[in-house]
Amino acid sequence: MKLKAVKHDPRNLLTSLVLVFPLFLIYQVGVLFTLPMLNGADFLTVFLFRNVGLTTTAYLGYTGLVTAAFIGGVIVLRKRQHFDAGLVWRVFLESGIYALTMGSLIVFVMTRVFGISPRLAGGVAAQSFGTRLVMSLGAGVYEETVFRLGLLAGLTALFERGIGMRRSIAGLLGLAISSILFSAMHHIPPYGDPLHLGVFTFRFLAGLCFATLFWWRGFAVAVYTHALYDLYVLLVR
Q1: What is the pTM of this model?
Q2: Is residue 65 within 8 Å of residue 168, measured between CB atoms?
């Protein structure tokens, strides 16, 4: 009797959401210990704390509402997809490999192809280890949600369905624009780095890497690669 091969699709959105959600919860709780530092792509939390004057109790209530919305989304997705437990270790292993090799690849491209010094800003050195740890996890979740799941997918759909571009051209444009905005976001005051060609180029190329992973390997792989890369840089530096 022949055994049917099981196909594990890393782009399974239900599995991706389940795998990513623990990082979201860790970040949401961790933020309470890192204030006033917040992740720049976490627009909603920044708005709630700095403009609305959100209290800790209200913030936890907001986190509870997001958790409820997540559970609702999982219930809806379960009607069309199934949770693939076989993807768990594959996502962690694959993301770990990408995280460990991505930086070296980017530096190689910058120095050998573009002739640009991969000088990185050192602003994070003034932050505590715990703050940088929480920000690393938040970057993986929020930046991939905003720039890849939201902006890249949204721009590609707009260019393809709204303007009528070929899918390949729409995807390349979405990838380029979202990566430029991803890099630019890291230079917004008051916590952004000073604008420097090497820093901007490095993050632009990193955005291209994350976007490619999102497009071909799925949301969870992009999120964990981003988070693990930031943690790797944190530990090395």
Answers
A1: 0.87
A2: no
Q: Is the peptide bond before 189 cis (omega within 30 degrees of 0)?
A: no
Residue 184 near residue 32 (C-beta atoms within 8 A): no
Q: What integer is the mean pLDDT of 108-130?
A: 73
Average pLDDT value for residue range 193-219: 92
**The residue type at 51:** N
Backbone angles phi, psi at 52, to 5 degrees: -95, -20
Closest C-alpha among 159, 195, 191, 190 to residue 177: 159
Helix (H, G, I), strand (E, B) or coil at 205: helix
CA pair distance 224, 10, nearest whole angstrom: 12
The encoded tokens of residue 201 equal 């180029």
Burial letters 105-121, b for 16+ CB under 10 A, else e: ebbebbeeeeebebebb
Contact 144, 222 (CB under 8 A): yes
The answer to whether residue 60 scores a pLDDT higher than 50 is yes
Query: What's the rounded Cα separation, in Å, for the pair 213 and 156?
Result: 15
